[in-house]
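wait is this the right file?? whatever heres the structure
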């Protein structure tokens, strides 16, 4: 059974980052940004900011237990020609601005490969990603470890994500949150970075699927079933780690974000989860179906509140999904 209402409640009450936390994040990012903008050394270079990663894509989820959550924002900086041979200076300048600040200097802050991280006690950490438009037209972030530029296209990635989500009637983002919940709260496919998970799930969505399999993205559980089974089919045809291009068209890949061991583990776990999702979705006994969904997502997955609906309405599923073979699916 689909239990679409239960998924709606599960996302709202358990998976999604609460609005109060999102508001707190936005307030803290704005305060950090103003501090950097008014730094006497860095401030003249600051041109703007924008959300990055799961915050920008609206796929951010609640952290597990009392763990902190994290969010990224891109700090748009002006190019300094004299620093062209040493991109890591931009990262160091952001760090120095925090280090000398009267408040942030006393908070945990550190330089990472592509960001400067500022941590708030027992709540969140914010990754500040230096971002530039170079004179030669490239959009770049800084790889401090290798002291080099990395091309990026954040607007392109956001546009791609919006288009893929639109095809699924807004359900792709919810599917990504559910799969991140499995990874973070159920310790499944640990080691797979969010950018890879988002890209792989998003790449399985297509207009062709929506046209040839009407209803395949009709609601959250159906979209979850469709996308994860299609991803499983794609992965099972690839025993060796495939290349994962940035869908924004930046020309880079995410291949460095994982290795063959991580990929193989992810491939095996998705194969198991595709089977679990299918079993829970196809189960016609309400109580047993809830137990199967809870085996996957945990006891916080709620039982349906309305148990008196007509059987035909409760058990209805898009007929094409239950009759079409998984063999030879597009992907």
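ok assuming it is, sequence goes like this
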């Amino acid at each position: 059974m689909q239990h679409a209402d239960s998924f709606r409640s599960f996302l709202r009450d358990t998976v999604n980052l609460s609005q109060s936390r999102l508001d707190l994040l936005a307030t803290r990012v704005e305060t950090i940004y103003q501090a950097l903008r008014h730094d006497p050394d860095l401030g003249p270079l600051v041109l703007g900011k924008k959300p990055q990663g799961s915050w920008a894509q609206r796929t951010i989820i609640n952290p597990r237990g009392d763990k902190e959550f994290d969010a990224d924002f891109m700090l748009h900086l002006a190019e300094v020609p004299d620093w062209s041979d040493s991109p890591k200076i931009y990262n160091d300048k952001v760090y120095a601005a925090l280090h000398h600040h009267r408040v942030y200097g006393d908070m945990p802050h550190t330089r990472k490969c592509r960001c400067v991280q500022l941590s708030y006690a027992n709540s969140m950490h914010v990754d500040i990603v230096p971002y530039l438009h170079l004179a030669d037209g490239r959009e770049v972030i800084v790889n401090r470890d290798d002291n080099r530029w990395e091309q990026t296209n954040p607007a392109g990635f956001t546009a791609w994500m919006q288009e893929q989500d639109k095809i699924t009637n807004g359900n792709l983002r919810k599917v990504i949150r559910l799969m991140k919940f499995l990874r973070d709260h159920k310790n499944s496919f640990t080691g797979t970075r969010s950018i890879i998970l988002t890209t792989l799930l998003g790449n399985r969505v297509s207009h062709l699927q929506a046209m040839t399999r009407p209803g395949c993205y009709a609601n959250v559980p159906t979209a979850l079933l469709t996308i994860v089974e299609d991803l499983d089919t794609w992965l099972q045809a690839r025993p060796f780690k495939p290349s994962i291009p940035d869908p924004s068209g930046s020309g880079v890949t995410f291949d460095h974000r994982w290795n063959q061991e991580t990929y193989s583990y992810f491939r095996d776990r998705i194969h198991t989860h595709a089977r679990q999702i299918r079993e829970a979705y196809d189960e016609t006994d309400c109580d047993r179906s809830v137990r199967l969904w809870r085996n996957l997502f945990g006891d916080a997955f709620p039982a349906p509140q309305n148990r008196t609906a007509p059987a035909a309405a409760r058990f209805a599923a898009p007929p094409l999904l239950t009759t079409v073979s998984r063999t030879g699916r597009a992907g």
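The chain has 13 helices and seven strands. so i think its the right one actually
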